Amino acid sequence: MTPQHVTEAAERTLAGPVSTVAVASIVDHTLLRPAATAADVAALVAEAQRLGAYSVCVSPSMLPLGDTGSVKVATVCGFPSGAHHADVKAAEAARAVADGADEIDMVVNLALATTDRHDEVRAEIAAVRAAVPAPTVLKVIIESAALTDEQIVAVCRAAEAAGADFVKTSTGFHPAGGASAHAVGLMARTVGGRLGVKASGGIRTTEDALEMIAAGATRLGLSGTASVLAGLVD
C-alpha cells in the first residue's frame, strides 16, 4: 500500500514524465522571512492557489490563515535553530495545529544530532508527534548540510522510530547550506519509501528541482515556485 504521505501527484512525478501540474502538486510554497507581513502571506496564498501548489509554509505567528481552499497550511516549530526544549517545540506545534496548521516542520536539536545522542533526538521528535498526532503531518528538518552521512542516516532512523511522516533536508537558514541531491538520495534510501523526503533550502531553478525529484524527493520546499515551474515544458 502506498504510504499516506505520498500523494498520487507525487507518484506520477516520480514514475513518469515531469509536468508542471505534477511538480506544483508536491510544492510547499514557502515564506519564512522574519519581516514578512500579513499582506505578504495573503499574496503567497493567492499565488499558491494560482500555481496549484500543495501547501503554503509560513511562520506560526501568521496563523490562522482563514480559508485557503484546496491549499494545505504548513508551519514550522523550533525554527530555525532547533535549540529549543522539546516541550517548547511540542507546545508550539500544538498551538499551530489549533490555529489551523495541517503540517508541522520541526527542526531537530543539531547539538544532539552531531554528538550522536540519537535516543534524545528520537525522544524530542516523539514529544512533538505526541502533541500533534495524525492526521497532522510531521516533517523533521535535519539540516543535512551540517551532518555527516552517518549522522544523516541516524537522524532519519530516529525520525522514523518517533513516528514522523517526512524527513526534510534544511531550514534554508543554516550557514552550512541547503539541500543537495546527495543528501536527498541518502535520506530516501534510508527511509525506503516509508516516510516522505522533503528537499528544501537553496532550490532556485527548474534544474535544481528536477535533480531533487530524481534523487528521491517527494515534496519540495520552494520560495521561488513560479520561476521553477516556468522552466518546465509540458
Topology:
Elements: H1 8-15, H2 20-24, E1 27-31, H3 38-51, E2 55-58, E3 72-77, H4 86-98, E4 103-107, H5 110-114, H6 118-131, E5 137-141, H7 149-161, E6 166-168, H8 181-191, E7 196-200, H9 206-215, E8 219-222, H10 225-230
Parallel strand pairs: 1-2, 1-8, 2-3, 3-4, 4-5, 5-6, 6-7, 7-8
What does this structure look like?
Residues 1-14 have low confidence and may be disordered. Helix 6 (118-131) packs parallel to helix 7. The protein has a single domain (25-228), classed as Aldolase class I (TIM Barrel), CATH 3.20.20.70. With 234 residues, the chain is an alpha/beta fold. 48% of the residues are buried. Helix 9 (206-215) links the parallel strand 7 (196-200) and strand 8. The chain is 42% helix and 16% strand.
The number of distinct helices, counting runs of at least 4 residues, comes to 10
Mean pLDDT value: 93
Class by SSE composition = alpha/beta
Largest sheet, in brief, is: 8 strands, parallel, barrel
**What is the H/E string?**
HHEHEEHEHHEHEHEHEH
Active site: 105 (proton donor/acceptor), 168 (schiff-base intermediate with acetaldehyde), 198 (proton donor/acceptor)
Keywords: Cytoplasm, Lyase, Schiff base
Organism: Georgenia subflava
Main location: cytoplasm
